[in-house]
Protein backbone atom coordinates (compact mmCIF):
# COMPACT_ATOMS: atom_id res chain seq x y z
CA UNK A 1 0.00 0.00 0.00
CA UNK A 2 1.25 3.48 -0.93
CA UNK A 3 0.62 5.53 2.22
CA UNK A 4 1.51 8.78 0.43
CA UNK A 5 -1.63 8.42 -1.71
CA UNK A 6 -3.78 8.49 1.42
CA UNK A 7 -2.27 11.73 2.77
CA UNK A 8 -4.06 15.02 2.16
CA UNK A 9 -2.39 17.00 -0.63
CA UNK A 10 -1.85 20.09 1.53
CA UNK A 11 -0.10 17.96 4.15
CA UNK A 12 2.17 16.47 1.51
CA UNK A 13 3.21 20.00 0.51
CA UNK A 14 3.48 21.30 4.07
CA UNK A 15 6.81 22.59 5.33
CA UNK A 16 6.72 21.74 9.05
CA UNK A 17 7.61 24.26 11.73
CA UNK A 18 11.24 23.94 12.80
CA UNK A 19 11.87 24.75 16.46
CA UNK A 20 15.23 25.80 17.82
CA UNK A 21 15.70 22.31 19.22
CA UNK A 22 15.03 20.79 15.80
CA UNK A 23 18.03 22.64 14.39
CA UNK A 24 20.41 21.58 17.16
CA UNK A 25 21.68 18.10 17.88
CA UNK A 26 24.44 17.26 20.29
CA UNK A 27 25.84 18.52 23.60
CA UNK A 28 26.20 22.13 24.69
CA UNK A 29 26.62 24.15 27.88
CA UNK A 30 25.21 27.50 26.78
CA UNK A 31 21.82 27.72 25.07
CA UNK A 32 21.08 31.06 23.41
CA UNK A 33 18.93 29.78 20.58
CA UNK A 34 15.32 29.50 21.80
CA UNK A 35 14.63 32.83 23.57
CA UNK A 36 14.24 31.07 26.91
CA UNK A 37 14.70 32.66 30.31
CA UNK A 38 18.41 32.01 31.06
CA UNK A 39 17.94 31.77 34.83
CA UNK A 40 17.76 28.18 36.01
CA UNK A 41 14.38 27.03 37.23
CA UNK A 42 13.16 23.50 36.92
CA UNK A 43 11.41 24.29 33.65
CA UNK A 44 13.06 27.26 31.96
CA UNK A 45 14.12 25.12 28.97
CA UNK A 46 11.81 23.81 26.28
CA UNK A 47 11.22 20.05 26.32
CA UNK A 48 12.68 17.67 23.77
CA UNK A 49 10.24 17.99 20.85
CA UNK A 50 10.90 14.39 19.80
CA UNK A 51 10.95 12.80 23.27
CA UNK A 52 14.06 10.79 22.33
CA UNK A 53 14.90 9.39 25.79
CA UNK A 54 11.30 8.46 26.55
CA UNK A 55 10.83 6.83 23.15
CA UNK A 56 14.01 4.83 23.65
CA UNK A 57 12.60 3.44 26.89
CA UNK A 58 9.22 2.66 25.30
CA UNK A 59 11.02 1.06 22.35
CA UNK A 60 12.77 -1.34 24.73
CA UNK A 61 9.58 -2.18 26.63
CA UNK A 62 7.43 -2.68 23.54
CA UNK A 63 10.12 -4.12 21.24
CA UNK A 64 9.24 -1.51 18.61
CA UNK A 65 11.57 0.67 16.55
CA UNK A 66 11.74 4.22 17.93
CA UNK A 67 10.93 5.56 14.46
CA UNK A 68 7.59 3.73 14.69
CA UNK A 69 6.52 5.54 17.87
CA UNK A 70 4.53 8.78 18.14
CA UNK A 71 3.75 10.27 21.55
CA UNK A 72 0.77 12.54 21.97
CA UNK A 73 -1.02 14.60 24.58
CA UNK A 74 -3.20 11.59 25.30
CA UNK A 75 -4.28 9.21 22.54
CA UNK A 76 -6.82 11.88 21.66
CA UNK A 77 -4.07 13.98 20.06
CA UNK A 78 -3.02 11.08 17.83
CA UNK A 79 -6.66 10.50 16.84
CA UNK A 80 -7.09 14.16 15.93
CA UNK A 81 -3.83 14.26 13.95
CA UNK A 82 -4.85 11.18 11.96
CA UNK A 83 -7.94 13.08 10.83
CA UNK A 84 -5.87 16.16 9.97
CA UNK A 85 -3.31 14.17 8.00
CA UNK A 86 -5.49 11.73 6.08
CA UNK A 87 -9.07 13.05 5.86
CA UNK A 88 -10.05 15.90 3.56
CA UNK A 89 -12.77 17.93 5.36
CA UNK A 90 -16.16 17.75 3.70
CA UNK A 91 -14.98 15.02 1.33
CA UNK A 92 -13.48 11.97 3.04
CA UNK A 93 -15.23 9.61 5.46
CA UNK A 94 -14.39 7.30 8.35
CA UNK A 95 -16.05 4.13 9.59
CA UNK A 96 -16.74 3.65 13.30
CA UNK A 97 -18.22 0.64 15.11
CA UNK A 98 -20.84 1.31 17.79
CA UNK A 99 -20.82 1.25 20.72
CA UNK A 100 -17.25 2.41 21.18
CA UNK A 101 -15.03 5.21 22.49
CA UNK A 102 -16.75 8.51 21.79
CA UNK A 103 -13.75 10.62 20.74
CA UNK A 104 -13.52 9.05 17.28
CA UNK A 105 -16.86 10.60 16.31
CA UNK A 106 -16.11 13.86 18.15
CA UNK A 107 -12.79 14.28 16.33
CA UNK A 108 -14.51 13.51 13.05
CA UNK A 109 -17.09 16.24 13.72
CA UNK A 110 -14.41 18.76 14.70
CA UNK A 111 -12.56 18.03 11.45
CA UNK A 112 -15.74 18.05 9.34
CA UNK A 113 -15.34 14.41 8.31
CA UNK A 114 -18.44 12.28 7.68
CA UNK A 115 -18.88 9.27 9.96
CA UNK A 116 -20.43 6.02 8.76
CA UNK A 117 -21.38 3.71 11.62
CA UNK A 118 -21.74 -0.05 11.91
CA UNK A 119 -23.35 -1.67 14.95
CA UNK A 120 -21.35 -4.41 16.61
CA UNK A 121 -22.87 -7.87 16.96
CA UNK A 122 -24.89 -8.74 20.06
CA UNK A 123 -21.72 -10.00 21.75
CA UNK A 124 -19.93 -6.75 20.81
CA UNK A 125 -17.78 -8.22 18.04
CA UNK A 126 -17.13 -7.02 14.50
CA UNK A 127 -18.50 -8.50 11.29
CA UNK A 128 -15.90 -7.95 8.51
CA UNK A 129 -18.46 -8.39 5.72
CA UNK A 130 -20.74 -5.70 7.16
CA UNK A 131 -17.74 -3.41 7.68
CA UNK A 132 -16.62 -3.69 4.08
CA UNK A 133 -20.13 -3.24 2.73
CA UNK A 134 -20.42 -0.04 4.80
CA UNK A 135 -17.07 1.36 3.61
CA UNK A 136 -17.23 3.63 0.58
CA UNK A 137 -14.63 4.86 -1.89
CA UNK A 138 -14.26 7.93 0.34
CA UNK A 139 -13.60 5.94 3.54
CA UNK A 140 -10.05 6.70 4.65
CA UNK A 141 -9.96 5.26 8.19
CA UNK A 142 -11.67 2.44 10.07
CA UNK A 143 -11.58 2.82 13.88
CA UNK A 144 -11.67 -0.33 16.00
CA UNK A 145 -11.34 -0.56 19.78
CA UNK A 146 -9.99 -3.80 21.28
CA UNK A 147 -10.60 -4.39 24.15
CA UNK A 148 -13.67 -2.38 23.34
CA UNK A 149 -15.02 0.47 25.42
CA UNK A 150 -17.67 0.25 26.93
CA UNK A 151 -18.16 -3.51 26.49
CA UNK A 152 -14.67 -4.55 27.68
CA UNK A 153 -14.15 -7.45 25.28
CA UNK A 154 -11.39 -8.16 22.80
CA UNK A 155 -12.48 -8.21 19.18
CA UNK A 156 -11.90 -11.55 17.46
CA UNK A 157 -8.30 -11.67 16.26
CA UNK A 158 -9.03 -13.38 12.93
CA UNK A 159 -11.70 -10.79 12.12
CA UNK A 160 -9.36 -7.93 12.96
CA UNK A 161 -6.66 -9.29 10.68
CA UNK A 162 -9.17 -9.82 7.89
CA UNK A 163 -10.30 -6.19 8.03
CA UNK A 164 -6.71 -4.90 8.06
CA UNK A 165 -5.70 -7.12 5.14
CA UNK A 166 -8.61 -6.24 2.89
CA UNK A 167 -9.16 -2.52 3.53
CA UNK A 168 -7.38 0.00 1.32
CA UNK A 169 -7.19 2.75 3.93
CA UNK A 170 -5.88 3.01 7.48
CA UNK A 171 -7.14 0.68 10.21
CA UNK A 172 -6.70 2.23 13.65
CA UNK A 173 -6.90 -0.27 16.51
CA UNK A 174 -7.21 1.36 19.91
CA UNK A 175 -5.60 -0.86 22.56
CA UNK A 176 -5.96 1.41 25.58
CA UNK A 177 -6.83 -1.63 27.74
CA UNK A 178 -4.56 -4.26 26.18
CA UNK A 179 -2.49 -4.65 29.38
CA UNK A 180 -5.50 -6.24 31.06
CA UNK A 181 -6.11 -8.75 28.26
CA UNK A 182 -4.69 -12.21 27.80
CA UNK A 183 -3.60 -11.59 24.21
CA UNK A 184 -0.57 -10.10 22.50
CA UNK A 185 -0.77 -6.60 21.10
CA UNK A 186 -1.30 -6.01 17.40
CA UNK A 187 1.94 -4.06 17.48
CA UNK A 188 3.51 -7.43 16.69
CA UNK A 189 1.89 -7.13 13.24
CA UNK A 190 3.12 -3.63 12.37
CA UNK A 191 5.74 -4.92 9.94
CA UNK A 192 3.10 -7.10 8.29
CA UNK A 193 0.57 -4.32 7.60
CA UNK A 194 1.56 -0.87 6.33
CA UNK A 195 -1.97 0.42 6.93
CA UNK A 196 -2.14 -0.59 10.61
CA UNK A 197 -2.08 2.04 13.36
CA UNK A 198 -2.15 0.91 17.01
CA UNK A 199 -3.03 3.27 19.85
CA UNK A 200 -2.05 2.63 23.47
CA UNK A 201 -1.83 4.79 26.58
CA UNK A 202 -0.06 5.29 29.88
CA UNK A 203 -3.37 6.33 31.47
CA UNK A 204 -4.74 2.91 32.42
CA UNK A 205 -2.35 0.12 33.48
CA UNK A 206 0.53 2.51 34.12
CA UNK A 207 -1.63 4.81 36.28
CA UNK A 208 -0.65 8.08 34.57
CA UNK A 209 -4.02 9.43 33.44
CA UNK A 210 -3.17 12.85 34.86
CA UNK A 211 -0.09 13.19 32.64
CA UNK A 212 -2.07 12.80 29.38
CA UNK A 213 0.43 10.70 27.46
CA UNK A 214 -0.73 8.48 24.61
CA UNK A 215 1.27 6.23 22.31
CA UNK A 216 0.73 5.65 18.63
CA UNK A 217 2.56 2.87 16.76
CA UNK A 218 2.69 2.51 12.98
CA UNK A 219 5.10 2.23 10.09
CA UNK A 220 7.75 4.94 9.86
CA UNK A 221 5.99 6.78 7.02
CA UNK A 222 2.79 7.29 9.01
CA UNK A 223 4.74 8.32 12.12
CA UNK A 224 6.79 10.84 10.13
CA UNK A 225 3.56 12.42 8.87
CA UNK A 226 2.19 12.78 12.43
CA UNK A 227 5.49 14.30 13.56
CA UNK A 228 5.29 16.71 10.64
CA UNK A 229 1.97 18.22 11.75
CA UNK A 230 2.09 17.97 15.55
CA UNK A 231 2.72 21.06 17.71
CA UNK A 232 6.48 21.48 18.23
CA UNK A 233 6.48 20.84 21.98
CA UNK A 234 3.38 18.67 22.46
CA UNK A 235 4.73 16.69 25.46
CA UNK A 236 5.90 18.77 28.42
CA UNK A 237 9.17 18.24 30.25
CA UNK A 238 7.20 17.26 33.36
CA UNK A 239 5.23 14.59 31.51
CA UNK A 240 8.35 13.19 29.84
CA UNK A 241 10.28 13.06 33.11
CA UNK A 242 7.52 11.51 35.21
CA UNK A 243 6.62 9.00 32.51
CA UNK A 244 10.24 7.90 32.20
CA UNK A 245 10.47 7.53 35.98
CA UNK A 246 7.31 5.41 36.08
CA UNK A 247 8.42 3.19 33.18
CA UNK A 248 11.44 2.18 35.25
CA UNK A 249 9.06 0.43 37.64
CA UNK A 250 7.45 -2.09 35.31
CA UNK A 251 7.08 -4.77 38.00
CA UNK A 252 4.92 -2.45 40.13
CA UNK A 253 2.68 -1.87 37.13
CA UNK A 254 2.53 -5.61 36.43
CA UNK A 255 1.58 -6.37 40.04
CA UNK A 256 -1.18 -3.76 39.96
CA UNK A 257 -2.49 -5.21 36.69
CA UNK A 258 -2.55 -8.70 38.20
CA UNK A 259 -4.49 -7.42 41.21
CA UNK A 260 -6.98 -5.53 39.01
CA UNK A 261 -7.58 -8.66 36.92
CA UNK A 262 -8.05 -10.71 40.09
CA UNK A 263 -10.54 -8.16 41.44
CA UNK A 264 -12.31 -8.10 38.06
CA UNK A 265 -12.91 -11.84 38.26
CA UNK A 266 -14.17 -11.57 41.85
CA UNK A 267 -16.48 -8.68 40.96
CA UNK A 268 -17.88 -10.57 37.98
CA UNK A 269 -18.72 -13.52 40.25
CA UNK A 270 -20.24 -11.41 43.04
CA UNK A 271 -22.21 -9.10 40.77
CA UNK A 272 -23.75 -12.06 38.95
CA UNK A 273 -25.37 -13.18 42.21
CA UNK A 274 -27.15 -9.88 42.91
CA UNK A 275 -30.90 -9.65 42.27
CA UNK A 276 -30.44 -6.22 40.72
CA UNK A 277 -28.04 -7.57 38.09
CA UNK A 278 -29.38 -9.17 34.92
CA UNK A 279 -26.11 -9.82 33.09
CA UNK A 280 -22.37 -9.22 33.51
CA UNK A 281 -20.59 -9.04 30.16
CA UNK A 282 -17.18 -10.77 29.92
CA UNK A 283 -14.31 -8.30 30.07
CA UNK A 284 -10.67 -8.12 29.00
CA UNK A 285 -10.29 -4.60 30.41
CA UNK A 286 -10.18 -2.93 33.83
CA UNK A 287 -13.93 -2.50 33.96
CA UNK A 288 -17.17 -4.46 33.64
CA UNK A 289 -20.30 -3.67 31.65
CA UNK A 290 -23.26 -4.73 33.76
CA UNK A 291 -26.93 -4.87 32.76
CA UNK A 292 -29.16 -4.05 35.71
CA UNK A 293 -32.81 -3.34 36.50
CA UNK A 294 -33.42 0.38 35.88
CA UNK A 295 -29.83 1.56 35.42
CA UNK A 296 -30.66 5.26 35.79
CA UNK A 297 -32.27 4.68 39.18
CA UNK A 298 -29.38 2.50 40.35
CA UNK A 299 -26.88 5.10 39.14
CA UNK A 300 -28.64 7.90 41.02
CA UNK A 301 -28.97 5.85 44.21
CA UNK A 302 -25.26 5.03 44.17
CA UNK A 303 -24.37 8.65 43.42
CA UNK A 304 -26.33 9.73 46.50
CA UNK A 305 -24.16 7.31 48.47
CA UNK A 306 -20.96 8.86 47.11
CA UNK A 307 -20.21 6.15 44.53
CA UNK A 308 -19.80 7.21 40.90
CA UNK A 309 -20.27 4.73 38.06
CA UNK A 310 -20.86 5.38 34.35
CA UNK A 311 -24.41 5.06 33.07
CA UNK A 312 -24.18 3.76 29.49
CA UNK A 313 -27.94 3.26 29.01
CA UNK A 314 -28.22 5.84 26.26
CA UNK A 315 -25.93 4.09 23.74
CA UNK A 316 -26.70 1.27 21.33
CA UNK A 317 -26.69 -2.31 22.68
CA UNK A 318 -26.24 -1.00 26.25
CA UNK A 319 -29.81 -0.41 27.46
CA UNK A 320 -29.90 -0.39 31.28
CA UNK A 321 -26.14 -0.95 31.46
CA UNK A 322 -23.69 0.49 33.97
CA UNK A 323 -19.95 0.52 33.35
CA UNK A 324 -18.06 -0.27 36.54
CA UNK A 325 -14.35 0.47 36.80
CA UNK A 326 -12.50 -2.08 38.94
CA UNK A 327 -11.32 -0.33 42.09
CA UNK A 328 -9.38 -1.47 45.11
CA UNK A 329 -10.63 -4.45 47.10
CA UNK A 330 -12.13 -2.09 49.69
CA UNK A 331 -13.83 0.10 47.07
CA UNK A 332 -15.27 -2.91 45.28
CA UNK A 333 -16.67 -4.34 48.52
CA UNK A 334 -18.30 -1.02 49.42
CA UNK A 335 -19.94 -0.94 45.99
CA UNK A 336 -21.26 -4.49 46.40
CA UNK A 337 -22.64 -3.63 49.82
CA UNK A 338 -24.55 -0.65 48.43
CA UNK A 339 -25.82 -2.59 45.41
CA UNK A 340 -27.33 -5.17 47.75
CA UNK A 341 -29.40 -2.43 49.36
CA UNK A 342 -30.94 -1.23 46.10
Give me some keywords for this one:
single chain, 342 residues, alpha/beta, Aspartate Aminotransferase, domain 2, Aspartate Aminotransferase, domain 1, seven-stranded mixed beta sheet, four-stranded antiparallel beta sheet, 11 helices, 35% helix, globular
Concise synopsis of the structure shown:
With 342 residues, the chain is α/β, with parallel strands linked by helices. It has eleven helices and eleven strands.
Approximate helicity band: 25-40%
CATH architecture of the largest domain: 3-Layer(aba) Sandwich
Low-confidence stretches: none
CATH superfamily of the largest domain: Type I PLP-dependent aspartate aminotransferase-like (Major domain)
CATH fold name of the largest domain, please?
Answer: Aspartate Aminotransferase, domain 2
* Strand element count: 11
Biggest sheet: strand arrangement = 1-7-6-5-4-2-3
CATH class of the largest domain: Alpha Beta
Element pattern in H and E: HHEHEHEHEHEEEHHHEEHEEH
Task: Note the gap between the termini.
Answer: 56 Å
Give the helix/strand class. Answer: alpha/beta
Biggest β-sheet, characterized?
Answer: 7 strands, mixed
How many separate domains make up the residues?
2
* Mean pLDDT rating: 97
